[in-house]
Amino acid sequence: MKISYILILARVIVQFTQKHKESERTIPLDFLLILWMIIFTLPVLGLLALQSDLGTALVFVAIFAGLVLLSGVSWKIIIPIFATVVSGIAGFLAIFITKDGRAFMHQVGMPTYQINRILAWLNPF
Hints:
It contains six helices and no strands. By secondary structure, the chain is mainly α. The protein has helices spanning 2-19, 27-51, 54-70, 75-96, 101-107, 112-122. The chain crosses the membrane at residues 31-50, 57-75, 81-98.
C-alpha cells in the first residue's frame, strides 16, 4: 500500500499542478492541494485506525509530509504546521514524563504496549 499511496499522491500533485499551471501559486491554492492530498489520505489512515496500527500510520504521515514538501507548497504554510506538530509532540512528552502522566494516557485509551514502547525509547537502559 505504501508504494501505491506514493503513486496516488504523486498523481494528485501532478494533475493539480497541470490544471493550475496558468495561475500563480497562492496560499489558498496550496491549501486546496493539501486538501486534495488529505482526501486521498483519510481512507488509508481510517483503515489503519481500525487495525490500531500506530507505527504504520506514522509512516504514512511521514510519506504525506515528504510529498507535501516536494510538491512546492509555500513555506508560509509548512512552517506553522511544523511548529504546531513539534509543540504537540513536546506537550505530549511533557505530560508523559510527569508523575501521573502515564496513568492519564492509559485512562484516555492509550494501550499499555505503546506506553511501554515510549518508555523504552525515552529510557533505553
